[in-house]
Specification:
The chain is mainly alpha-helical. The protein is built from three helices and no strands.
Length: 89
């Protein structure tokens, strides 16, 4: 797979994960039992994995790619913070 395709796929996956995390957080705030919910915990794990994958890719990216990857990583980290705090900001 070319580097460009890999980058595009990573950014697409990160965007989809951000949307999924937003949905899970909304469900969790409605149900109030989210702390014990498996999907809430699994989403946190997925966010952590994606952050690590983005970090690895950032180190081998050119400046333009690095900018896009940094923005995606910031969105992932924002969602991680929301999950830790337990509410959407």
């Amino acid at each position: 797979m070319s580097t460009y395709r890999k980058l595009e796929e990573m950014l697409k996956n990160a965007h989809e994960l951000v949307e999924y995390a937003d949905e899970q957080l909304q469900l969790a705030t409605k149900q109030q039992s989210a702390i014990t919910d498996n999907s809430y915990t699994e989403t946190q794990q997925l966010l952590e994995q994606m952050s690590g994958e983005l970090d690895k890719m950032i180190h081998s990216a050119n400046p333009e790619q690095r900018d896009a990857l940094n923005r995606a990583q910031q969105q992932i980290q924002d969602r991680q913070n929301n999950f830790i705090l337990g509410f959407e900001t």
